[in-house]
Amino acid sequence: MQFYSDEAIEQVYKMRHAIEDVKAILNDLNDDKIIMKERTVLEVPGTQNTMLYMPCINTKSNYSILKTISIFPENKSKPVSQGVTLLSDLTDGTHIANLESSYLTRLRTGAMSAIATDKLAKQGAEVLCVIGTGGMAFEQVLGVIEVRNIKTINLYNRTYEKAKDFKQRLEDFGVTSDIQVFDDVTEAVKNADIINCATRSEESVFDHKDLQASVHINGVGSYLPEMREIDTISIKHADTIVLDDLHGAQHEAGEFIQAEQDGHFDFNQATLLKDLTDKNKTEGVTIFKSVGAAYYDLAVTTGAYKLLNA
């Protein structure tokens, strides 16, 4: 069995590859080629730490995965999110590789946001606001700049210094947008065409009244029922809401669960990413909410493995 580290994968497998592989898996999903069991989420008692276990098979590609990912938000010297995925061949049951999955998790989530952004954000979008500059945020930026010509990036984090470090990381990576760091979220969002939220907040991280009339929002940070990122008013008034996976969102997307309970949202009226087309684009508020699903991990795990063995 082969093993591939995050570093080895990152050398060859990039955002553009992930976007194409996620698009392909969405086609397989529509063709009923995906079989997946519900993600198991186990919270470690007395901590904020969480273990997730995610199985999935693709009867078209004949690959199977079992992903294990840990989310330990208080980590200082190690990444908050760490994962490994077992890849198996369905033709003979051989377990062919283990791939470290922290990078792949971030990359596939960025690719999902890129696909939604490309379909929903206005074509001339130039200003991206990033709320939360932790582990998931970097690839979210890479996804957006892959599909839109972003001239300005506004960064906001509760800890100002972390936002400054994030700016430096983007610049070191080669991002050429004008990057600004804000200590007031209102100022950061008010001119934004696109907003990326990647936090573990239990209350909304921006106020609807501060948004432009036409804005696209990607929410990828909250993944437990008690978490909130996007305010209820934005959900209520959104022209289009897109979910990465209906079952997962119904159980884990806290702000949408609350909005439905309050009578401001209906999960059955949302569009799924697999069904998203250019016809969903509007001039108002659009929202993409991601909680993750194993078939997205299968897409990038298989894609990375093939590229590594090309």
UniProtKB/TrEMBL annotation:
InterPro entries: NAD(P)-bd_dom_sf, ODC_Mu_crystall, ODC_N
GO cellular component: cytoplasm
A family per Pfam: OCD_Mu_crystall
Source domain of life: Bacteria
Protein name: Ornithine cyclodeaminase family protein
Organism expressing this protein natively: Macrococcoides goetzii
Lineage: Bacteria, Bacillati, Bacillota, Bacilli, Bacillales
